[in-house]
Every structure is written in structure tokens, then in C-alpha cells.
Amino acid sequence: MADERAAQDDREEVDYELDADLVDQILEAVEAADSARLIDLIEPLHAADVADLLEQIGGADRRALLRLWGREIDGDILTEIDEAIREEVIDALPRDVLAEAVRELDSDDVVDLIEDLEEPQQEAILGALEDADRAAVEQSLTYPEYSAGRLMQREVVTAPEHWTVGEAIDFLRAEEWLPDQFYHIILVDPRMHPVGYVTLGRLLSSGRVVPLRDITEDSFRTISVLQEEADVAYAFNQYHLISAPVVDEDDRLVGVITIDDAMAVLDAEHEEDILRFAGVGEDSSLSDTVLETVRQRTPWLLVNLLTANVAAVVISQFSGTIEAIVALAALMPIVASMGGNAGTQSLAVAVRALATKSLTSSNAGRVVRREAMVGAINGLFFALIMGAVGYLAYGSAMLGVVLGMAMLINLVVAALAGVLVPLMLERFNLDPALASGTFVTTMTDVIGFFAFLGLATLILI
Amino acid sequence: MADERAAQDDREEVDYELDADLVDQILEAVEAADSARLIDLIEPLHAADVADLLEQIGGADRRALLRLWGREIDGDILTEIDEAIREEVIDALPRDVLAEAVRELDSDDVVDLIEDLEEPQQEAILGALEDADRAAVEQSLTYPEYSAGRLMQREVVTAPEHWTVGEAIDFLRAEEWLPDQFYHIILVDPRMHPVGYVTLGRLLSSGRVVPLRDITEDSFRTISVLQEEADVAYAFNQYHLISAPVVDEDDRLVGVITIDDAMAVLDAEHEEDILRFAGVGEDSSLSDTVLETVRQRTPWLLVNLLTANVAAVVISQFSGTIEAIVALAALMPIVASMGGNAGTQSLAVAVRALATKSLTSSNAGRVVRREAMVGAINGLFFALIMGAVGYLAYGSAMLGVVLGMAMLINLVVAALAGVLVPLMLERFNLDPALASGTFVTTMTDVIGFFAFLGLATLILI
């Protein structure tokens, strides 16, 4: 696989990474305070790439660049900028540029832009909007964070359920205002309950007299405005949705979510999963300051310090044994480390399976048994290897037996802990990804040291 | 965050997990060999949920279910089924059902279905296709695995660049055949080079006389047929693409990729990242057998066994020191464990930043310096704590100093290793996610034990 990727890297030219030469040229233009050249260089870039540029250059360069080029910033760039530097960029913009930039955005993008800002910055942006847009944004902000209500756009194209293709096309032609991107027409009953949707492709390829109701899609699914955004992303991926109507508690249509927003959520969820798994606060970004980064990473290190001390206390109970056979001190970390690795493997599979809803109450029992079997087989295999190593390196058959037995015990514990800890968190409605490796490695450290030193005390002393 | 999620879980009803009661009822119907009831129960489910059902039940139940219900399987269900059980399901189907099922699929779905099958199964499916479809699928299979060519569908809706809106609409009306889902019309020049695209929404809302060229989208981007699929997924997410034309080496249009396929790739890439990070073979699934799972997990455990033995050799060099001060044996795992955790944090951030192209050659130097600073600050903080613990618990100020110094050294090494190892792999065109935690924790184990026991030997003995 690694070789394959290398080969693929050779044959492809585009990898979408910001060109390092271009970044250098831009920084030179900033250095020279040459704003005409800066505009020439940045103008061909996509908004998302401009945002990446702002994130990747240093703080001093960024401030200088914004002074020279800030009037060119538009709403699309603002929505792409990472939260870590968003406030800084907004503060650096002249009020009129900011107002202009946000007025061109759809309601969901404005919500996304301002939901994490401080009160005064929120006010500045809301104040720039027209009354109707402002009301729409404020309404969206009343929905809980990370809910479908925050994610949806309120601009929706609907048609009465009794219309024909011809009526729908005439309506679209006549309509002054339409969203930038839309892929379906949502059919609604007189009380604004969505009853189905029609893709624009079907609409275009059907005769004018065909009733819309006859060409609706099977994939139709509504989403509750209070649904958690992670579940919304899951539904889009699972059911291949392109857009989905959002409904309130009375099943009335209040907005629509499109797949590009769902994809962004899926990406953010994965970032959160991998960072949590490694014990990093989820809001981490390369643009964070050193102190910000320290603040994100310290809590789990503190937890780990506590648990490492528990393992130390376990070991110190056996100091007499270690004094008698000092080789035990060198061998005990092997048992602990193997347990930690096996537990992390099992944990990663379980956390991922819970996220994709493929580990459920229907198959949990079978999965736990499978993990126990895997742990036992791996345990036996590595017990034999390490038993042999123990015997050959230290000339003591019984030392080999102790090492092998401790290995077997710890690998079974590791495999079980890796799957049971996240299952338990899920049962208590907590995020299973919170079971960062720290928990499992603590367990395998403690059990590993205890089993090895305990057995050594019983058998060797 | 945990509390927030719990609250959200309460207020939402749908979480898209297969209903456990339904699964029980289905298994009862299988038990009773009641195929009419089975059809009633499964019929309302989405194809993706039927696939999940087949994956989640045990092997014996699955075979019994397929015997009773296999004739109902359609192509959509086949494409959703996890690779781990796909061969088994295909083998269980009567030939005529299989042929019927694949004939209704788009070319990209057939490719996806058969690319990992054995030769005879591939032949059985290809043989069921009509000649034109078979040729299209065989052509796609000539592109490298994990390339855009495998991902694209060959069914494309195009229009000559000089057409008007009216001409395009008349063409769509008259066309017998159109893909199930399409969102854009791709404009091509006479030599089939794509020159732009028009969304169906713009087409519908524009007057008949408007030239298509006047309403093309700014977001237009072509994708090379040899582009790696992970980069394709990145481009869709980064540039908010909904569909993108795929071109060959001569820039000629050969197919189109839609966002739902890109989203599935993004999801699979993330799965691979988190599993590799934890040292699991990437093709892992809950439907794998016990032996399959052992086979996936053993290689990294073997690597870890080797490296753990290196750490043991380091420790055994200091057996004289440990014999003299047995407390060192209890304290040394604390230093190693803190280093392992800090290194894993730094590694997760770096691997993720490389995947999102936010860690580049332009900012690598700054990021490495930042990590070193973070390591130093955390190192000082934990050095002070552990120094104090060492002094208070063991009454030796110098033991506290040794513990603190080793902690500081190891946390700086951990932070640097976490970012330098994946950067180096990337430089050599290897996948940075290969730098599973194992590498970094080995380094921090070895350095941690060496620094702590070495300093103890110098200062305390």
C-alpha cells in the first residue's frame, strides 16, 4: 500500500496543497508593501485556498497582509477561515468591508460565521444584515449548537404537491430569487408539511403535463430541526442523500440541508474523533498559539499522570520481588506495552464501529466474544514467543512461564477493555470517543504490572 | 461537551441505528423459516440498512436468511455490503438473481462491486452485463486502484458549448436515457474537452435564449482520471464541488464524479487513518472472522514486541542502579508513559494537518518550533509536579530532580517526534498515517527509560 501511494504521487500532478513558491511570492509582496502585486497573486485563488493561506502564514505576516489586502476579502473567504484566527481577521477588517462581505452570504453561512464569535463581533455582523436576513439568522441561533437547525439554510424551493412539471418550470422561470445551489424541489401540502421531492434532472426530462407527485424520489427523508449534526452527516452518507428537508416539531418545513454541508460536518467529526482518541482537546488547530495548545493538551496529560502514578504504586508493592530478581524490572514494561497496543487496536475498531452504527445492541455480545477470542489467540502466540525469550535470555524456565502467563492475561484484558469501555460510555449516553487511549492503556499498565509481578512473587520467590 | 451530547440524545428520536426489536423479529422469522414474514419485515428498509443487517447478524443466521430471502436482493443492496461478507453473499445468490441485480447498476457501482472479487466471481458478474456496459466496466478496471478512474461514472450529460438554454432543455426532454442522478450539464468543445458547467437550477431559472456559456459556474474544476481518490475527496470538500468532470491525459472528458461518491471516500479514508493510527490493518470490519482479525492485528503487535524488547535492553543496562535504588523501577514507567501520551497527541495533530494540507513546507518550520515550545512548557510543568512528588514520596530531593529532568527531556522529545516522524514519511512519499502510535511510543519509551535511569546513575549513585 505504501509503495502504491508513492507510485500514485509520482503520476499525479495536482495535490491541492498551496504552492510553496506562490506563498513565498505573496510574502515578498507583503514585505514590499506592494498591494497591486498582492491582489494579482491572490486573485486567481479559490476562497478556501485564500483562507488556508491566511492560516498557514505567521501572525505578523497575516496582520501585514490584511492591512494591504483586507478590502478584497469577501464573505466566502470569511466562512472558510478557521475559528482559531477568525476573530483576529474580522477585527482587522474595516466595518464597511465586513458588512459587504456578510450581506452576500446565505443564512446558514452567516450562522456558521458568527456562532462562535463574541457578543460585540456578532452584533457588528448582525447589524450589517437586512432585517429579513437578520431575523432568519437570529431564528437559527435559537436552535441548539451542533443541531440540524444551525446547519440548514432557510432558503428553500417548494411547490404545492398538486402541481405539474410545467407549472413548476414556469414558477422557477418567473421567480426573481432562487438559492445559489439547489438540486430538488420540495413538494409541500397546504400546511407546509413536506411530502416528497423531485430532482431537477427528473423535472427537466419529464413532459410538462406530468404531475410532480408521479416523479418524486424514493430516497425522500426529512430531518428534525433538533437532530444532532453528526447524525445528519451519518444519514447523508448512509442514504446517499443530496439534500434533505428539515422540519420542526409539527413536521412543518423550516429549511433544507445540502450534502456539501453534511460532508463538512463528517470531516469535522472525524477530526474530533482522531484528536479525542489521542487525548487532544477537539478544537485544536495549527493556527493556535503555543499557550492555547498547551491548554488543550494538559488535561489528558494530567489524567495520565494520575493513572501512571497508580501503576507506580502497584509496582512499588512488589519492590521486594524486584530487589530479589532485578531482571523483572526490565521485562515488566514489555507486558504493559503489548497490552497497551492491543487495547488501542481493539478500542479504535470499537469506537469506529459505534460511529458508523455497525456495533449495536444486536451484535455487541458477539463482538465482545470475538474480541476475547482474538485476545486469547494473540495472547497465546505472544506468550509462547516471550516465554521462549525469557527462558533463553535469562536461563530460567519459570521466568519464561511467568512472562507468558502475564502476557496472555494482559492481552485478553486489553481486547476486552478496548471494546467494553466505549460500549459502556455509549450506554450512558456519553461520547464513546471520550474513551481516549489513556483509559485503556492505564488499565493494561496496571493489570500488566500486577499480573507479571504478582505471578513472579508467587512462582519465583 | 459530554453533557451536551447526552442532552441532545434525549431530545432526538432518530439515531439511524438498526432497531434491535426489528432485528429480533427478523431473526425469529428466519428461525421459523417464514419467508413471507421476512419479506414484509425487510421490505420497508433502505438498501444500506439491509446491508447493515446482513453484516450485523451472525454467519449462520446470515446464510439462513439468504436462503429464505436471497431472491429479493437487488443491486443497491449488493453495493452497500461490506467487503468482508460480499463474496459470501454473492456466492449464496442464484445466478439469475445476481445477473438481474447488477444489470440495474451504474458503471461506477459495478466497478466498486467487483474490483475486490476473485476472478471467477468477477467473470460471473461481467458476463451478466450487456456488451456496452461490460466494455465500460472493463475500461474502468484498467485505471489504477484508488484512482478517479475507478470512482467516476461514465454516464455523463454534455452539451456543445455554443448551445442556448432552450436547446439544452429540448435535448434533455428528447433524450431517452439519462443517469439516475445528475446536477450539472457539462459544456464540451468539438474535441470533447470540458470547458465549463451549468447547474440545473440555473438552467431552469434562465430564459430559453440565454447562451449556456453565460451561466456557467465559477467553481468549475476538472479532475485527472489518474488522480488518487483521497485527493479527489479532498478537492470536493475543499472547493464545495457537487460534481466534477473527469478527463484523460489529453484533457478529454471520460466521466464524472459526484459528491456522494466523494463523501464515501472521505469516510473510508478517515476509517483507514484512525485504524492505522492505532496499528490495525486498514481493511478491518466487525464482520471479519476471529482469525482474519488476528491476522490484521498481529503485524503491529510484532513490531511493538521488538521495540518493547529494545526498551527492556536499555533498562537492563542499568540493573546495577535499579538494584541500588529499587524505587526507580516503580517511577520509570511514569516518565515513559507521559512521553508516550504527549507524543501521541502531537502525532495526531500532525497526521491530521497533513491530511487536510494545512501542514505544508511553508509552515513546517514554524509548526515544529511550536511543538518544541509546547513540549518544553508541558515538560517544565510536569517536571515540577513530579519533582515534588519524588521528593515528598521518597524524601530525596535529588530523586525529585532526576525525575523532573527526565520528564522535561522526554516531553520535548515526544513533541518533536510526534511531528517530525510523519513529516519525514510525507517527504519520502509514504503515507504519514503509517506512523502509527507504535513508532512514537517506542521512541518515548526508550528515551524515557534511558534519560531517567541514566541521570539516576550519574546523580544518585
UniProtKB/TrEMBL annotation, chains A, B:
Spans traversing the lipid bilayer: 372-394, 400-425, 437-460
Domain CBS: 152-214, 215-272
Membrane topology: Multi-pass membrane protein
Keywords tagged on the record: CBS domain, Cell membrane, Magnesium, Membrane, Metal-binding, Transmembrane, Transmembrane helix, Transport
One GO MF term: magnesium ion transmembrane transporter activity
UniProt signal peptide: none
Localization, UniProt: Cell membrane; Membrane
Keyword flag Transport: yes
A Pfam family recorded for this sequence: MgtE_N
GO cellular component: plasma membrane
Family listed: Belongs to the SLC41A transporter family.
Subunit details: Homodimer.
UniProt-recorded name of the protein: Magnesium transporter MgtE
Organism: Phaeovulum veldkampii DSM 11550
